[in-house]
Amino acid sequence: MEPTTAGGKIRMTDTEMVIYERRAVRKYKDIPVERALIEQLLDAGRMAPSAMNRQPWRFYILNDKETIRAFSKEIAVIAFKDVLHSGKAGLRQAKKIVSDLLSFSHGIDLHQLKDPVFYGAPVVIFITAPRGNEWAPLDIGMCSQNIMLAAKSHGLDSCPVGFGKYVEKTKIFTRLQVPPSEQVQLAIILGYGDETPEVHKRIQDNILFID
Length: 211
Known about the structure:
This protein is an alpha+beta fold and 211 residues long. The chain has helices spanning 14-21, 35-46, 65-84, 90-101, 136-153; strands at residues 4-5, 8-9, 58-62, 123-130, 157-161, 182-191. It is globular and about 55 Å long.
């Protein structure tokens, strides 16, 4: 897929190539990511725009395999129970949560069940913002995209994990040392991917030029 104009295709820039090559990857090789590289990716995240230039993001990183698995299992249990007992969705939605947690591009991998939320990725980044900041979700989204695109440019893969927000309800949340004044907005996983997901079809009829 390449950008086109009425006159035909135009050359894709290196930046655009990275954008088009990025995928949500849910299988990772057992290879650690250097701390210096992680910090460089976070610097890319810090370059994102934010409302009133408040730069509300703070980053809490896990890169120990056993610690990641511990958080993953706790989050999986909380996510399932939260939906099951909410009274809003019931058992059907709870089953969907489990299905989502255990879904992989090439089928269920029993080895990966040790880590049902973070898919065996060697790095998990929890991103927080001050509670009550109405623009935080937008700011964090842009920051996260910067990180994931920068990761791809370095040969790493990534995936945003919405279930990461459930970490606040786990028994081990205090291990992240997130102060009460902050709220977890999103988690991102990073690592060297072990799959190449297909490109999902993009909606094309959602543009309206106003003359």
